[in-house]
Amino acid sequence: MDLNDHLRDIPNFPKPGIIFKDITPLLGHAEAFAESIRALSAPYTDSAITAVVGIESRGFIFGAAMARYLNCGFVPIRKPGKLPAHTISRSYDLEYGSDCVEIHADALAAGERIVIVDDVLATGGTLAAAVGLCQDIGADIVGAACLVELAFLRGRSTITCPLHTVITIGE
Amino acid sequence: MDLNDHLRDIPNFPKPGIIFKDITPLLGHAEAFAESIRALSAPYTDSAITAVVGIESRGFIFGAAMARYLNCGFVPIRKPGKLPAHTISRSYDLEYGSDCVEIHADALAAGERIVIVDDVLATGGTLAAAVGLCQDIGADIVGAACLVELAFLRGRSTITCPLHTVITIGE
Questions:
Q1: Residue A96 belongs to some domain of the structure
Q2: pLDDT tens, B116-163?
Q3: B116 at the A interface (CB within 8 A)?
Q4: Which of the two ends of chain A, N or C, has the fewest CB atoms closer than 10 A to its terminal CB?
Q5: With an 8 Å Cβ cutoff, are A61 and B76 in contact?
């Protein structure tokens, strides 16, 4: 199965000139969704992963299904103000301005073996901040996994842990 | 296993006087997360479900894992402006003001058999709007499922399809 066949391009979203990779056709197709979870999880099936960390919002979809596939816990990284207990946060630069991600300070015990998951790797700002957050709380980051890598944006160079991607676009 | 033991109360979140039910300890516990997916899915294992519809953001976590458990597709309902293709939307009233949810207009074929999922049923506004959206696009709504029901808020009375909840608080 070529998972790329289950993505679709949406021109000019979220703004003019951008071609957005829409993953919803893949999600809606039972076999394609199942195959995406197998492919994302493949490097980690013998890695004694204790938690999958998913990045809000689409990273929740892949991360939660991976956590069940790998039979481990799921930990959310969220946008500011969404997590109810004590959090730590990381800011990162955007093209215009900055953004921030948060994790519960008690979400991961020191030495937990984790995979960090998002749907699409673009410039890498969000994922790099997520990797930093998990380092801050002492987790053992086995790797980061994204379904789609927009290789022409060179986000891979910003990620300081092993990176696994399933679909590569525009090398 | 008593799943309620894996929730925790966070006082005064998101505002003073509210006791927030935090599901993140449950998510982080592999066995509790697995049991929550089994319990949420139990009424539907022989229902020929074709898609689980999850409500952003925490509904994505339970909904995606349920879609894999039931071996069907996953369809997201999102906040306004997040879905890239043509959408339909429903507004609903909040205590102060209103909010809105959206679904891709082509996300579900007429007659698809679906379950709509969220983490917590409070006053029911979001879930009732999601049910309305799925009716608007002609899906066959087999049921709605929430992990936690805050029964004292009487949200159940607003839901016009069969409703399954796993943990009931404050009857």
A1: yes
A2: 999 999 999 999 999 999 999 999 999 999 999 999 999 999 999 999
A3: no
A4: C
A5: yes
